[in-house]
Design a protein that fits this description.
By secondary structure, this protein is mostly beta strands. The protein is built from no helices and 11 strands. The strands form 2 sheets. Strands 2, 4, 5, 6, 9, 10 and 11 form a 7-stranded mixed sheet that branches. It has a 4-stranded antiparallel sheet with strand order 1-3-8-7, with no helix packed on it. Strand 4 and strand 5 form a beta hairpin. The chain starts with a strand and ends with a strand. The mean pLDDT is 95.
Length: 121
């Protein structure tokens, strides 16, 4: 069964750091691009960061300079290092990946189940 599994969310004080991880498992040929999105209560889901197969990245304006996305290609895993966290970063963070399935070689977008990040004193 192909799926994305996230970990690393939690409660942190303003100014603190957290690292999220997301691993794609199952019969996968490739995972590209991979990225993170977030959704706060009552708001739309927004892009946080994306990393492509060539290593290029894109970030949402509100996280530039504070968050860093990276990946371990051999493990089909993507990370999000979040520094200098602010209360407005509080949201459910979702991993998203474009996965190519080994058996069919077709590509599909998959979403993780989401992990809660709460920034509060």
């Amino acid at each position: 069964q192909v799926q994305l599994v996230e970990s690393g969310g939690g409660l942190v004080q303003p100014g603190g750091s957290l690292r999220l991880s997301c691993s794609a498992s199952g019969s996968i040929s490739s995972a590209n691009p991979m990225g993170w999105y977030r959704q706060a209560p009552g708001k739309q889901r927004d892009m946080v960061a994306i990393i492509r197969g060539d290593g290029s990245t894109s970030y949402g304006d509100s996280v530039k300079g504070r968050f860093t996305i990276s990946r371990a290609n051999a493990k089909n895993t993507v990370y999000l290092q979040m520094n200098k966290l602010k209360p407005e970063d509080t949201a459910v963070y979702y991993c998203k990946a474009d996965l190519r399935i080994e058996t069919t070689m077709k590509r599909y977008d998959y979403w993780g189940q989401g992990t809660q990040v709460t920034v509060s004193s």
